[in-house]
Here is the input.
Amino acid sequence: MKRRRICLPSMAGGSVWSSIPGDLLEHISGHLSSDADLLHIHQVCAHWRACTSPPAACRPWIMAHSTSWSRSRAPGDPDYSLWLPRRVLQRRVEIGGPPPAGLRYCCGASRGWLALVDGAPTRLVLWEPASGAEVPLPCLSPVARVFLSGDPLASAGWMAIASQSIGGHAHRPFFWRPGDAAWSSLREQPIAGIVSVAFHGERVYYLEARRVVVAYDLNLGTARPPAFVGIRNVGWLVNRLCRCERLIHVVRGAHLVTCAGELLLVVLRRGPALRRGGRPPRSSCGPSFCSSFAEVYRPEWRSQGTLELGERVTDLGENSLFLGGGESFALSAKEFPAIKRNHVYCVAPDWNYSLKGDRTLPGWAFVFDLGSDTLKEIPYPKDLRDDGTNWWPYSWFCLRSPLMKKQQQ
Here is the structure.
């Protein structure tokens, strides 16, 4: 939905701008939802700059977790951190007030909310850092990941989807609606862990680690449980996309994400390997060489319950995609000036993306330009490598509203 824009009439000498009371300007800026609007209002004139402030840290941010080899921290310190996705001068983002007491661990970053648990775990709480709002949920032990169909403060009939670890690499999906006393099983058969979840229309789609897509009708606004729609193993579909004659570009990962009202499937690749009996090309790639590290498709769920990849997407317009181990989402470069349009941003936990046979990317994040087919790295912060902190990049996080300096005090 397009945001309404307020246009003030122009006046000779621009006196209308400086005559607006400062407290009104401050009040208006506090209700702006995009980083771009805050930057624009701050740049109008000297009076407006004095009464408003730009975002303290433009969104979105990389979320990282500690590891078993991380340096020990003080008791009670959060087990997660947020970072600006810069290629140079990387720094940590402080989001203001402390999280709810005792909830050190994060098991989900969705819709601008963090799903936090204690060490047992015996408590599971959704926490919105900007406002400090909390939504307690029944505890699901042990909970692996939590996803939200909508913003609990703004969406009617929202639902939470969670995966529970049941031993080894096996998980079981659950759902919860506001007012439910406990989580309900979404599927009794164990799965191999949820890689990504996408809410599109009245359905939820989740992608398992074995690249199996499962779809359910949410039945939002009713007392009926989600209804199974279909299941499809897309592993063989994405594996056959590379048709290079001599090389095969291994599929490293896949993600489901919604963008501009569409459901998209993103296929991520790593460096080329020789096909059996093949020889590497003598020179640079020929026309049959598959060079894309990220390919975007519009999956089509047929009435028979089958899923096809559909057409390939090479232009996302003003939008870009953010992929990771948690929620994947799309943002508009018009509203988030820190990002570039038509790009795929992805954190790279323990991934090894080869650009060429003799070069690999370090493990923090990468940015792929869908238009030019070029890949750039966001290197692991040098300070973290040197001091033994060893934060592990896991997902992306976008606060519901711009982060202001007063929220960091």
Q: What stands out?
A: The two ends are 33 Å apart (CA to CA). The chain has six helices and 28 strands.
